[in-house]
């Protein structure tokens, strides 16, 4: 009888272990820079494919209302991570916001001057005599004088109309402007969604303006207190980007699966495909996503100080704004 009891007890103990729940996944909030568009596909794809879950992360993706607002949320710890314009984060950090980039995804600038293909505006010289729509004080308008300098254009060579983001889009859509300043994978797709017409971008990067753009940021104190979680999050996000690169349409579809009103599959896919070439520079073409070089970041800081309104003291220590320490090792 004692032997039977012992065997039964052991069986019950084993059963209890077998059905005991695994340790709960870490809840993580990622806030985007804006309403969802094609650039954001890897995050949704990584969640849909269980890449974050495999790293013990229960990911919640929240839309944002601009990089500055998302940076503020991360600084205040109301979001664990943010996906933002890194130069915008620099402006906050140099003023004391406790934020740092734990990975820079877009290492080539997506900034451009774009107009309808049938306008045949393909090079800076073609901008002369045209009307350009801008949004005062946004990141592109701040770098615009550098583009003019690099290409030999003057403010007097063209007309300018100003308005908020939607007004700028409407100006081109309605023919009140020939071009607008926008990101190659964002505003161009919004215009195509609205009109069905293709847009041609004159990319700032093609004229020697090499500056980082979007990346992952976190609160500096949060990073120190949760080093293992930050490593797991960056590992999962790196894998999500790599997986999405291999199947852009499926990655874009994951946006619509999570948010049916998130756009149209064709332009979401095209927008994401336009984003992929921005992930690497010639120096990082063999690296996995997010590995930014010190030179790229230093040059970006210098450009922001000269043209983007960044406090000059930022030049003293560009490495204060970013770290590669939490990224997975190895080449792509």
From TrEMBL:
Keyword annotations from UniProtKB, A to Z: Signal
Record bears the keyword RNA-binding: no
Signal peptide: 1-24
InterPro entries on file: NMT1/THI5, SsuA/THI5
Biological process per Gene Ontology, one example term: thiamine biosynthetic process
Domain SsuA/THI5-like: 39-251
Record flagged with keyword Signal: yes
Protein's recorded name: ABC transporter substrate-binding protein
Organism of derivation: Bradyrhizobium uaiense
């Amino acid at each position: 009888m004692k032997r039977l009891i012992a065997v039964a007890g052991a069986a019950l103990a084993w059963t209890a272990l077998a059905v005991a729940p695994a340790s709960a996944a870490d809840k993580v909030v990622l806030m985007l820079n804006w309403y969802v568009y094609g650039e954001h596909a890897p995050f949704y794809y990584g969640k849909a494919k269980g890449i974050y879950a495999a790293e013990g992360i229960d990911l919640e993706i929240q839309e944002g209302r601009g990089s500055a607002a998302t940076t503020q949320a991360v600084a205040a710890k109301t979001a664990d991570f943010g996906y933002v314009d890194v130069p915008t984060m620099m402006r906050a950090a140099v003023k004391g916001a406790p934020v740092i980039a734990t990975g820079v995804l877009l290492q080539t600038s997506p900034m451009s001057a774009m107009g309808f293909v049938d306008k045949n505006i393909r090079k800076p010289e073609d901008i002369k005599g045209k009307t350009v729509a801008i949004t005062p004080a946004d990141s592109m308008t701040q770098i615009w004088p550098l583009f003019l300098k690099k290409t030999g254009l003057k403010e007097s060579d063209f007309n300018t109309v100003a308005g908020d983001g939607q007004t700028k889009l409407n100006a081109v859509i309605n023919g009140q402007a020939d071009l607008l300043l926008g990101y190659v994978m964002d505003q161009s797709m919004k215009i195509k969604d609205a009109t069905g017409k293709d847009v041609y971008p004159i990319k700032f990067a093609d004229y020697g303006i090499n500056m980082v753009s979007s990346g992952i940021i976190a609160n500096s104190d949060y990073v120190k207190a949760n080093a293992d979680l930050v490593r797991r999050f960056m590992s999962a996000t790196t894998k999500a980007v790599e997986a999405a690169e291999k199947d852009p349409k499926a990655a874009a579809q994951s946006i619509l699966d999570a948010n049916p009103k998130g756009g149209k599959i064709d332009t979401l896919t095209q927008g994401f495909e336009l984003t992929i070439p921005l992930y690497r520079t010639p120096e990082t073409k063999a690296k996995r996503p997010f590995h930014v070089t010190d030179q790229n970041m230093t040059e970006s800081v210098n450009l922001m100080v000269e043209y983007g309104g960044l406090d000059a003291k930022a030049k003293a220590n560009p490495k204060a704004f970013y770290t590669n320490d939490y990224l997975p090792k190895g080449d792509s």
